[in-house]
Every structure is written in structure tokens, then in C-alpha cells.
Fold:
Amino acid sequence: MTKYKQIRIALNNCGVIDPENIEEYIARDGYMSLGKCLTEMTPQDVVKEIKDSGLRGRGGGGFPTGLKWEIASKNKADQKYVVCNADEGDPGAFMDRSVLEGDPHAVLEAMAICGYAIGASKGLVYIRAEYPLAIKRLKIAIDQAREFGLLGKNIFDKNFDFDVELRYGAGAFVCGEETSLIHSMEGLRGEPTIKPPFPAEKGYLDKPTNVNNVETFASIPIIIRKGASWFNKIGTEKSKGTKVFALAGKINNVGLIEVPMGTTLREVIFEIGGGIQGGKKFKAVQTGGPSGGCLTEKHLDTPIDFDNLIAAGSMMGSGGMIVMDEDNCMVSVAKFFLDFTVEESCGKCSPCRIGNKRLHELLERITKGQGTMDDLVRLRNMSNVIKDTSLCGLGQTSPNPVLSTLDNFYHEYVAHVKDHKCPAGECKDLMKYFIIADNCVGCTACARVCPVGAITGEKKEAHFINSETCIKCGACIERCKFDAIIIQ
Amino acid sequence: MTKIKTFADLTKMRNDLQQTQALVDMADSSESVIQIKVGMGTSGIASGAKAVMDFLIEALEKRNIEAIVTQTGDMGYSYAEPTIEVKKPGKEPVVFGYVNLLKADEIIEKYIKRSETVEGIIPVNYHTIDN
Ligand SMILES: Cc1cc2nc3c(=O)[nH]c(=O)nc-3n(C[C@H](O)[C@H](O)[C@H](O)COP(=O)(O)O)c2cc1C
Ligand code: SF4
Structure:
């Protein structure tokens, strides 16, 4: 397997079969893995196979899936639950949506396999209501699987019952956090609670609950079919298999890719992704969404896996990759993610609720050119406190974009503070419009188009922009035929 | 009535389905037929894949070309949506990107009818689990 950079495991059927036709899934060996588990393997064998495969959770944390199943299987209860986390809240991420839209049966089959392994007869998919197509296709898939006897009672005549229902979320990022997700499914407020107890002990309705991500599940039938020893040959020492990424931002080939763990960022961005749009210069890539950090030029040759990304100051996250070019201001990038976190914080604990708001205010000040060097120290200190004292993963990771941009692009922060300049030219408040007197012929076109009357000058003489009045709308630049107006 | 009661039932159903599919795929069986798949994930549909699918079905029928047109999920090429895959009997499937109605027409007239090349082919760039 060396000819191509990509291997499609989780995306095996995505874009290949008609997701609304179970027969196409069956023709591609669908539900054969469930059959193999029920007829040839004990639940312990299944757990062992998943453990041996080295599969780690694709929802962000990278927890070993086999171990999670083992813990859930050992907890005794009259009822256990298998939950599929399809909340997918990161901005720019659409891996899970694509898998559910393209191959819903793979997720259902995997949930049933998990049910068999841990001793659960009920499965729940928690999916955001903003994914109507994925919901529609899942519903069709569940109906068809029931009709074919692949979900329901006494599957394959092996005394195993399993059925799946959908639960809808309203699209809150925090509801992707597993304790929060469970509370939301129970009809309570989507707020996290302290772990332990972990869901595997006390989850949905206080019963042992195994929560896995969509992509984690989508890999399971293939692992059973091809064997743990096939799967664990792909990837790096501690991160096995492949990872799906959603490439977004200033990259040519925006889309979904699936690469073996250990592929470098350079291969992903410049080979598969086709490089940066408009031939611009690569500046950074954000992995891990609002919980992650930015990786730069110096990380381009780092093999991507769970541990390397953490060592580089970011994280795998669920697989969003937002590519930035020379025109992106990194202070604004940090502010963008903080905007998101402030909006999505559930407000339960003060470090996250108040701390992130204060971080956001500091960033706002800096992008307006009103920050001080003390503010930069404050940013860092406050980030560390928020990380250390927040209740859930949202607050514990929300300052990462700030810390990683401070680490990698400190000079940009300093330029905003000391020189009142935005090197990338993105921060509007720091830009000034000038007329180059030598180029100006005094045609008055700019003065006529300026909505706030900031431009003055006599006909056939050089004009002048009053920067106090100017709102930086850019109308004058578009109108000037003599390239006399510049932004600095 | 459940259709599949045992693992043997499933295995048999799979084998039958695969056999039928093989006949459809082959160059010269009585079942051979052109198969077209339209990428209909959210991004495909947002870029106009539904209209392309409707056009293909209608145009192929009008021009008396027997073909099966189905929907599929996201092929991964969001930058080149809508995307379609065309498989002629006995040939490897070919994926086309940027398929608007004009392009769809060109694909029917040139690639399907006359086996001429059409621009916009997205070359295979990944391994499957079996190769
Ligand atoms: C703020 C926050 C948001 C999360 N969002 C998601 C999500 O959208 N999808 C997901 O699968 N996991 C998400 N997680 C991780 C889950 O809590 C959980 O670890 C995961 O679903 C476990 O599945 P896995 O082991 O298969 O990765 C989120 C965690 C946090 C802290
Ligand atoms: S860290 Fe934020 S999101 Fe998590 S519980 Fe505290 S306030 Fe809520």
C-alpha cells in the first residue's frame, strides 16, 4: 500500500454505495462482521480483537476503544447502552456528517457489534438536528435493517437483541462532551458533570453506557473483517489505522480525506490538498478546532498522530483542518475561536464562563491596537488558569488557540501592541487609508463615492483622506483608476 | 417477515447480490449496463447535484441510452462538486468533477457515447481496504 497517500477504511463505502439501499451495503460485505461476531466469536473475543487493533477514539480524546469496551463489558447491570456521538460541533468539520450520509449501515452494524461485546441491547445515536440529510438516511437505514432482521430480536438466531433509536441535539458544542450529551438525552440541560463516574459505569439513565464517535464506529466492521493484525500494521506505533480529515480554509482541494496515521502535514496540505489557494504562502493550519492549536511551517514534516500533535501544542481533535495563508492575522484567528467558545460555554463553571469572556476582551483590545505588553502576559496567565480549573474539556482546552498563537506568532501580537500594525493586514481598526499625492490626478471620483465625506481636495489637485472620519469601507480604492489609494 | 434469519441467509444474499452485480459490471453479459453514481452528500446537493441527477436520468432516456443512475454519499471532493462516477461495462469507473448540466451533457455525448476523453476527471488517489 504505497502507491497512494490515502487509504479509505472509515470511508470505505462512502461515495460508493447508495446509502438508502441496504442491499448495496450487503453486497459490499455489510453486516458480515456482525454475523462473524455472533457466530464465531465470544463477546470477550470481540473486545480482544478491538484492543489488539490499537484503535483509539476518533472523537478527539484518542482513548483506546477496546479498553473502553472492556470496562463497559465488565460493569454488571440489567441494561446497558451503546451511544454514538454524532454531535460534531467543531467549526469546519464535516467528517461524521459525511460518514452518516454516505454509509449509515456501517455505524449501525458497529453499534450492534459493540452491543454484543459489552452486553447491551439498546443503541442511541445522538445527532444534531442541523443534519437533516444524515438523519433521514439513518432513519431509512434503521427501518431497512429492522425489516431485514439485522436489528431487532434474536439477530441471526443467536439470542442477541439489539435496536437503535435516534436522539436529537440542538447543536450545542458542549453537548458533544459525553456527560453533557447523556444529560441532554435524558431531557436535562446539556451541562457536563465531573468524571468519575465515567459513562461506562454510570451513564444514560445511570446505566453503564459506552459512548463512541461516528468514525470510531465506522472503522469497527472493517477491523472485524480484515482482522486486528491487518489494521494495526497501518499507522504509527501508538496511533493505529487511518484518520479522516476535513480540509477547509485556504486550501485548493477542500474536501474529505482519509490518511494513515503518521502521514505528514506537508503530504496532506501540499500533495493531497493541492497546496494553498491562489499560490499564496502557507502560514498555519489549525487542527482540533477550537480546542486545538495552530501548527506552522516548522511542523510540516511532523507525522500526524495523537501524541505528536499534542507534543506540537495542538491536538488531533475530531479531524477538522483549517488552513491559513499569509493574509490571516493570527491574533484574529485566536479571537475567532474564542468568539466560538464564549458563545458555546455552558456557563456552569466560572473559569470558563468568565475567563474566556475576559480573554476575548483582551484579544479584542489587541486587535484594535489598544493592547499593552502587560496584556500579553495576562493572556498567557489567564489561559493557564482556565485550562487548569475548568470543569469539562471545553474550558480545559478553550485557551489552546491563544497559547499556540502566542507561542508561534508572538511577533504578530507585539506588532499589534507596539506598532499598532496588523502584519497580515486583516485587522480593520489598525489599517489606514492614504492617497499617494504623486499618483492622484484630482479626478474627485473617490471623494464622490466616500459615504462619510472623509476625502477632501480641489479638482485636479491631490486629494487627502481624513483618517479620523474614514470608516475603512474600501469604496474609494475600488473607484480610483490611478492606484493612488493604499492601505497601510 | 424478516428476510434474514441466520448468518447463512445473509451470506447467501450477499453472494447472490455480488453475482448479479458482477454481471452488470461485465463487458458483455446480457445484464451489462452503464452505471452512473451522483455524489449526493450535503455538499454535493448544495452544489446542484440533484439537478444534475434529474438531468442525467431524463437525457439518457431521451437519447435511448440504457443506464442506471443512482445516488451515493460524499466522494470527498468538495472542491469539485457536483461529482459523478461513470462506469461503463467492462471498464474501470471514472470520476468527473465540476459536473454542471453542460458538463453532464458533454459526458453523455463524448465519454458515454463515443468514449472520447472529457476534461474534469479526478484520478483515483486512494487505496481501498482490499488493494
Ligand atoms: C467540548 C467537547 C466537545 C466534544 N464534541 C464531540 C463531538 O462532537 N463528537 C465526538 O465524537 N466527541 C466529542 N467530544 C468527545 C466526547 O466527550 C467523547 O470523548 C467521545 O465521543 C468518545 O468517543 P471516542 O472514544 O470514539 O472518541 C467532545 C468533547 C468535548 C470536551
Ligand atoms: S468548562 Fe465551560 S462548558 Fe465546561 S462545564 Fe465549565 S462552563 Fe460549562
Remarks:
- The first helix of chain A runs from residue 22 to 27.
- Chain A touches chain B through 57 residues (CB under 8 Å).
- Residues 22-231 of chain A form a domain with the Rossmann fold fold (CATH 3.40.50.11540).
- Residues 369 and 420 of chain A are 5 Å apart (CA to CA).
